[in-house]
Fold each of these.
Amino acid sequence: MTDATRTIEEKWDLTYRHAAGPVVSHFYDRLQSDGVLVGRRCPQCTRVLVPPRSFCDRCYVDTEDWIEVGPEGVVETFTVVYREFQSLPEPPYAMAYVRLDGADTAILNYVRGLDLREPVAAAAALRPGTRARLVVDEPQRRQGRITDFWFELLP
Amino acid sequence: MRDVAIIGVGQTKYQHRYPDTPQPDLVRRAAQAALADAHLRADDLDAVVYSMAPDALIGVLHAERWVADAAGAAGRPMLRVNTGGSTGLSSVQAAYDHIASGMCDIVLVVGADRVGESGDAQTILNRIWDPMYERQMPLNTVTMLAMQGVRFFEKYGATPRDMARVAVKNHFNGVRNPVSHIQKEVTIEEVESSPLIAYPIRLFDCCPQSSGGAAVVLASAEVAERRGEALAWVTGMGFRAESYWMGDRMGPKAVSDHAESPQLAAAADAAYRAAGITAADIGVAELYAPFTTVELHAVQDVGLCPPGTVLERLWEGYFDLDGEKPVTPSGGVQCANPIAVTAMVRVIEAALQVAGRAGDHQVAGVRHALATGIGGDHQFFGAVVVSDRPRAATAPPQPDGEERTDRD
Amino acid sequence: MSALPADTQPCLVATTRRGPTGDSLEESLYGTVRALLDGAGLGLDDIDHIAIASSDGLDGRAISSMVTGPAVGVYRHDTINSSSSGEHALILACLRIMAGRSRTVLTVNWGHPSEAPVDAVQRLELEPFFHRGLGGNHTVFHGLQASAYLGRTGLDPGVADEVLRKNGVAAQGGDEVVAWPLRARHLPPQVDGSVAVLVASAAWAASRGLPAVHVTGIGWNTSSFWERGAALGRLESLAAAAAQAYGRAGLPDPAAVDFVETTDLTPFHELMAYEALGLCGDGEAVDLLRSGATAPDGATPVNRSGGLHAGVPPFAHGLDRVAVAAEALLAGQGRRALVHAASGLAAQNNSVFVLRSE
């Protein structure tokens, strides 16, 4: 037998078309057309869930009303990435879970407009409790995706 | 309920890649090691539980089919369990039910992973998030737990230096475990100067991408007693799920904090109750902690120290190999993470400790050991207690013959 | 193996089956479980454990149970996920109840093929060294299997249409050959849907006064991946699973049950199942079919429901077959039933459940 074992390279290329359902669709409709974020209220625990879901996984009941949230909120947690991962953005980049005013849960997105060269300084600026605001992309650039918006820290 | 014993364990060496050992051969090597340890042949098995987490990590969907022969499952009952990172622990729990139900007497739990072959595991692990809202963000297990660490810092006043202390302990232990992937001691300074991956997690806070296989043979009390070869007895089990939504684990109305996990605590409590013990009886804990930030909260959650005391105890050496409550004497996930079997390895190491077979990382006099597993986005939490005697000898009888899994 | 106490015998006490909903996968699963709970007058607090089955590739979610689990109610619950097949989750549910560890286990399976590149996904189920380079999907393997069966028995391929006529399902495809001997009309439709079954201990079902279908026998088995060859035309692991289940249930004559539901991946698979289940001797399936015994009004009706051609979501085939049989028993259409579930490439994995109503 040979001493030199082979490797067989195999690339996966799969495209799914995930059904989003009415609640997710409405969230992206409002984001794309009006530049606002909306959440859904659970009638049982009364939490306003952002991102919105059609049911509350804690109470296991249908959510009901639509509630517009933000545009300001508070950083609940964050990270700043300094290593490159395949198929993910070029570092460094910051992302945070921000609980928008009027919401009871936090939504994840990039935090832009921050100097990330010094990790300790960036971490201090992003510390949980810091206020942030929603920034929505120009209307013609919106695609009805989560990347249509991001956060910036409030001065 | 019938008592269930662990009568054999097997592990391959964990390393980045296995270029000379294709997946079926790696599975077979692990299975044969455990069968040899139990002095059994595949023909003696009543069933096989195949332990395999995300299909994508080895690049074959439903690869349990391909490796059926290698796992000793051809012509036998086999099913696959997958609960993400907790898969190996869930597999042991499933095998327990095979035997406790009376359907089987001898069951093999086996699996293998080849994370180092997956290109970049974190690319695959990005695809675990919900496709509607979160997958378009650069989430992966590092960033998910970096954000857990940041919240732990805020809640308990921890710093990156505390994380480094955990890394130093685990690397020290890993050198004493011959199958560990990472075989290198590190200093606080080396951890703190290792490359920053995602704040606050540095390279030496992270688990490696490991390949390797592991297997456990479980048997009924009748078989174990007839053979007189139980390494340990499975005396308690628990498993609890958290909300998928990390963003729901923060803010005033959250009932769980992403800093830690009440559901890990609930799973461990269920296991202690079933075993008829408390956390104080645990001699060794093999905790599933792929990043140092996780170990900081896990030791508190499973009750090895009161909430808020982990940092103080950590620096006292309380969790060190020669400490009061050694945590993860094997070096743990931080020194080897073959994802499909990582949580099973926690059970194997717990059993080796109880059996007095852990070699250079043996802790003296362990009667009860805890193994945990964590899966999903810090969402599935499992616990197994193994003991040096059967459950009937440690736990009080259940009044109604059933153990209702209590929930709050 | 010891005898089991009667009060921890697993029972099927509620079922819900739903087709396409227009919702997201998670939403449709929530709707299915919500319907089951509401229909049975139960809440999630009544559920001790949740056993699901998910296929990462079909679902397009790399750890599907992460997002699908919460949709079926796993929040703060004890739970497990099988990724080998739907019926394996049901087996885990039954074992757990038999072990006395839970009184109630909710089991949920699903498939939403309309969202997935199904052929490309199935190609990735092939191992990369010898099979994947050749390509192939489930249909191709089922064709190989049907062809091996015809080779073994010398039957005319037209027998498949006799099975479809017997099952009373309208042909949903044309005459074109897809993978010899399979024609388009022999292939079951690919539909979206989900199935939920509540399994409970006999003691719990009795305490709630719920009608119960007892699972008196379970068997599951695995064929070799490599050493099949001519054996492809025989469901060997089904015969082994059946022997295990019949032994447990004390069922000496499988043909004595009131009806059978099989996983007829193709009409040829229904015939292979007759033989492996022991409803007839080896190679005698066509005689059994033509005797009318397996027709809806025969002595041992098989797939009275129409089988998979009635529209069953993939990866939920097995649990769907069990739910269909349980519903028929609860509706008084017989007292004993046999269910066959198949999964894996070329039905590598087979399971058998023996059911009995009170």
Amino acid sequence: MIDKILKHLQAEFGVQSVALLEGTKQDTVVVPKEHLVDVCKLLRDHKEFYFDFLANITAVDYHPENRFALVYNLASLPYQTQLTIRVELPMENRDENNLPEVPSVSSIWRTADWHEREAFDLMGIYFTDHPDLRRILLPDDWAGFPLRKDYKDAESYHGIKIKGE
Amino acid sequence: MLEKYNTAYQRYLDKIASVGSTEMVINMGPQHPSTHGVLRLELITDGEIVKDVIPHLGYLHRCFDKHAESMNYGKTIPFTDRLDYLASMNNSHSFVMGVERMLGMEDKIPKRIEYIRVLVCELNRIASHLIAIGTYGIDIGAFTPFLWCFRDREHIMNMLEWASGSRMLYNYIWVGGLFYDLPVGFEERCKDFVKYFKPKLDELDGLLTNNQIFIERTANIGVLPADVAINYGCSGPMLRASGIKWDLRRIDGYSVYPELEFDIPVGQGLMGSVGDCWDRYKVRVDEVRESLKIIEQCVNRLMSDYARLPDFDPRALVPKKINTGNQSYYVRAENPKGELGFYFETKEKTDIPRRLKARGPSFNNLSVLPELGKGVLIADLIAILGSIDIVLGEVDR
């Protein structure tokens, strides 16, 4: 199954760009972010794969490296298969004005909308072409991205002390 | 922050500011009883018609992901209990399965432990569905089912408290085993409960399921087509009510579920169309019946093939130090509310994960509300929200 998917993706997008992640218990395909939307569209619409269910999107921080990753867990309801897509996001710095940018897949699976908002909110990943990229769990005026490993608590929020005595 | 990171928020502010003179913005929640917790829905209404729903989450955000990055797996189990606090056993079961699979020890767990896990999970599933059914009744004006459901749920709470020492947040299922074996006499008490509860469920059916007022309020309301449900990542009773037979207990066949007999109820549109509020309610009622079947089978096997032995230690396999190496793993399991997933990403030589993300079913099920809520009456929005059966502990994590 995974060989077939890999072959198909490599034929479509080039052997260099799509790779299988070794040493994992679940099938994982590494995809460059330029091809992400096309790969997802193909995986959803191809009648032999039909990954119509996006279960989860996770953003991972590899501090101290300047590197992030996005992990998409897909499932196919008709074929009862699972697949993981991984997008690596190497960065030059961790500046707040230089967020990693990834194209949004919310046009393919609507559930990605809220998952991507969560990744933006907590990990600071900017999704281009997202219809409504606001913070979701934290207040709209929160500063910083708390799930990053180098996040430092602010002194106070609207006059409320954050760290206790 | 750069200007463009803030544009969506500006757009939202503009949208609220530009509401027309015939329209009104209403805040439903965060302290509204029908939002089942601290959910705030911002409604743009025209008279009684809801034009737009903007959910605001996060009032119950307790940083589960961040906490999990600073402690080992055993210490994280009590935190998983607090995700969907109405079904704590199911949460920890799913989490523990993930860790066990990463360690490669899922086949070594004794059958008795697996049966006990399934037994307590199904008891908890009934408790969770009873809340869903009872509070759904109260949402649309039926008070009695609420009291009946809570009365019967209390029996389950007492039983689980007897086993684990805690009423709602159990910390009972551990990596590689259990906190304790079942107390002596638990199996008999389960049997008594099933015997007591079956007629009560029929009573409840008579009161609510075929109640004409209830049907008027729920049938053909909030119809969720199957393709929309899948696209929005809905799972559990939400997805099954739309007519799709998708139950991870059968699909993945984890734990001892392949050895147990039960059916998967799906929505059939008996009172209206497939995927309406009544179907979602009915699927839950039917699932309670299936869970009772599972409990009976589990108890029978726990009293015969896998009976209690004096030297049986449910903690024998609990690892002293968990070292999973460098891995990434996504585990999923069927919670009362849908697919609960945990995504693990672990490091070498440490029992603290690099990243742990919980995928709450309520979070995804709730995301379909703006789609379902467009153009309905305000009163119907309450009916739709109640039928989704959210737990805010899991939406906000």
Amino acid sequence: MSAYIDKIKEISNRLLKESKVDMVIGFRKGTVPMMNEPCFAKTPQDVDNFVWDSNCGINLANYLTNREEKIGIIAKGCDSRNIVTHIIENKIKRDRLVIIGVPCKAMIDRHKIETMFETEIQDVIEADDKIIVKGDGFEKTLNKSDVLQENCAICIHRNPVKHDEVVGDPVEEQKDVDRYEDVRKIEAMPPEEKWRYFDDLISACIRCYACRNACPLCYCHTCFVDESRPQWVGKSQDPIDTRTFHFLRAYHCSGRCTDCGACERACPMGIKVRRFTKKLEKDCLDLFGWEAGMTLEERPPLDTYRSDDPDEFIK
Amino acid sequence: MKFIKIDKESWAKGLERLDDSFRLFGPVKQDKFHNFKELDKGELPDLSLLNTRLSPKSVVYPQSEVMFEYTLDENKEDHHILKEIDKDYSPRAVIGIRPCDAKAFLVVKPNFDAPEYKDPYWIKSYEATTFVGYACDTPCSTCFCTPAGCGPFHEEGLDLLLVDTNDHYLIKVITEKGENFLSAAGWGAEVDADAASDQIETMRHTAEAKITSRVSTDELKDKNITDLFEASFWEEAAFACINCGTCTYACPTCWCFDIQDETYGYYGIRMRNWDSCMYPLFTLHGSGHNPRDTKIQRVRQRFMHKLKYYVDKYENGIQCVGCGRCIRLCPVNIDIRRVCELMNSYGG
């Protein structure tokens, strides 16, 4: 995966030198293990700071919303699908973008790795398909495939769906992946158990909105939780309000969510927020055969009406 | 100076005795990480931690706090009158608070307890609390307490300092409040002060040497406020920020709140909830105008407040104790150490 970085730098430099773009959005090395920081490069010198490894899980499409410059953007499979969604939803113009596609080899789950160790992780090094974790007096080698972000482990669109440049050959897409095992388990629960499950799931929520703000879909100028006239949702730690936030946010993402995992990665409390969005994603696939962000040619199912739309739920 | 030795067996017994006279709060591992919570009867604080995920500021200053209640029922004589809610200000103790988090209460004190304005809820809670610090011998690589004017064995803001020497605890008595707490627990095995003091000093030096983060704050005071405000680095420093409230909610020294009324039928409450300068709503005026409408303005506000406005206004150092939570929890890796260096070295 690190071989990509030379190509990323080469393309970014060329685009900037030839004034094809005003800036390239990518990642620079983080100051703590398993974190990189989204950044922009406006000069070839800035490009030197770019990195690429298994810690680039943040969805960079989030940094495009309503920007007007000419932008080069580094895009994994999921980022590219959110860029498509952004274009469809008029949050960015296709002709302002140069998409630098990265065939993705999956990102690692920082929350999972942190909880595997009792003490502080001071360094994490990547070598092929191994992850070497170091701390004060210990060193442990993990298989990368065992510590992937959950959404990456079940990803079936690792290659960018739209790109103008590409940094490597396509990677093989995963086949025969059961994407919805967890959702089916919840669907099978009786209502009371479902409530308990969801209440437990979000009990640690501090309403910081990191999940919402890391999400490229959540670009509303005023989110429904921030509306004051009328005020839909209370602002305290009342579980009803917290629940309302999570449920409604998930519904707002249906037919749009690409399961990029940015929400889960961002949560400071390690809440599995994808449990909500995945259900809606599954419904869109089951009912409309729809996967978000795969094409610029078709409108998403929830902003169109067709006479053959499924209606079995209307009694 | 007085020092007490506690065998680990009598630790639990003492805490049990304290149950009668104090509400005890301590770190507890819930699911994947530690946080402070009120301990159930017989529940022990879990001291096998680096530090808690969130700061213990909520023990004194909860995320949501009801202040008043009212009725809108016009058949009642006292309708539409705010009435103060009864609250429990009986003695409480935070056991296992790290010295950085205890110092943080002193950093926020000038805001809640100023000569001209007094926040009664914060003051009463703070005064009811005994702070039993837990000396930190395993600082994290993100900790920068020493450059932030604090330290792993720092005593400011503590009533007692608990030091784990492996086979027993040593307690250094710092205040009278701490002394009272000790007598309620029944711990009283006084040890030779010189020897205990030497032992703690040695441990302090070892712990301080483990703090490798270097952050310079010495130039902040002399920087011109408008130069810093207009500095060119803000665009780059703020770029990654997604404007969530994680840093401010996790921070032991962030103090901002918002006031809300909630009504259920005829019954209503007035409460305050933590707010965050990262949110656009934080500064939105009734007119619709927002003086901090962009991300860059909000990120700049957070760092300028902590590292410049506070420094200039209170002459009490920076509004940060170097606990490193915002660094560890930021979803996009914005690092206050880096921003502090940019500010401190700006303009040469």
Amino acid sequence: MAERLMGDSVESDICIIGAGPAGLSAAVAALERASSVTVVDENVHPGGQIWRHDQIKGENPELRVLMNRLPRERVNLISSATVIAAPAKGRLIAETPHGATPISYQRLILATGARERFLPFPGWTLQNVTGVGGLQALVKGGLKIADQRIVIAGSGPLLLAVAAYLKQVGARVVLIAEQAPRRRLIRFGLSLFSNPARLGQALTLKRQLSGIPYLTDCYPVAADGEDKVRRVILQQGAKIWQVECDYFACSFHLLPNLELASLLNCGIEAGRVVVDNSQRTSEPDIYSAGEATGVGGLELSILEGRIAGYMASGNLPGAARLFRRRDRARRFARLLDQTFASTAVLRELPSDQTIVCRCEDVALGSLREHRSWKAAKLQSRCGMGPCQGRICGPAVEMLLGWQPDSVRPPALAARLDTLLLTAELAEGQNTQEWSKE
Amino acid sequence: MAEKVTILIDGTVHEVECGTTVAAAVLNAGRSLFRRSVTGAGRGPLCGMGICYECRVEIDGVLHSRSCLVPCRSGMEVRTDG
């Protein structure tokens, strides 16, 4: 494949980062007033994580409805593009298969979604130990999973949704282990009665999961096997036992993706992008919507996306109409956080030998010698690998109480041509600062 | 039936359904080791969505490509550390 040094540059009034439910809803809303929008997305197909393109089931019907409202001639969708730097106000650099693409914008909407929270335990680096959404994404990408034995553990509603999906496509889901205490889940379950739609979804899920044990107060103490995982050791109260499996899917609820917001100096508090009631961040021309502002599920993401799209296109009445529904959906988001918050016992899972930073193979024991992220990074390279602390950062925060460091460009591992272009566009910037990777 | 494309994984020919990601194709080929870590441990996909970089392989000569983000294309050459 012939590599161009630089992709075509893109100019747009409204630029949206992320083509999931929030980003696409923002695009549809913005197009009521704006003549065109640009949407930048990291994946090959739009849809984000929840509407990820599925090799088995094809395109998600809800996604199709939204895409039909986004005419090609008015939406510049840049797929397979990762934003890695913001060299100047109103400018971004995205890395695409065709090279680095400079993007300029007047107003920006960050709909960067969420990722899974991973917590280390002995054996979590074995092959075929994946995230929960991670395994689903692989299956949607064509991984053959029929008749494979799968243990699902961790925390959050995602465990149930993915179990139902995997069962439906022929996998043998052995059991689901939820770390949250039973009393929290009962409270959560009762709250669903105030929302008939959500209750309906929950009951459907329950029916789909019949025959699969759902254990609460239950967590993995280790994964075991030579290269690949062969069995998982689980604990519930005083009971410890092992379960054989082919894949072990484990993650502890979700975390907003904050790197780009941080790079753009948007205010961040309690692990979320801070927004006002019009979805505006602390930076005047930058809005944020969806999971980046706090994990709240599909309905909230769509509402926030629409509000951000209306605001960015100057349609204040359109936005204001949705505030009440958005606020109601946000209460559910807070309940999710409370219900699936990690219990303290999870801090005891890794031993001193357990690897925390998978990029640089830094074990917990060697991190304990340091007093802060910065010291640990400089001396152990923890969080300095290609993922830039995206996986180990949240784990370190929980295990050692260290707050994450600020994000510096490039926000992710980038190719040299991208870095050169970024340096070129950053007037007055010293090239050396960009070319460390 | 879905259309098929032919790719090479570590020199061996594999027929995969069109649209399959490289990560899924490697796993379907019975290989779970994608890369060797800095201390030599074999690793495979974790996040499935381009965040963890554990699934990186060489694709058509480009090192450190995130295989979970790349769909298989006809004639593609994939190299793992396995």
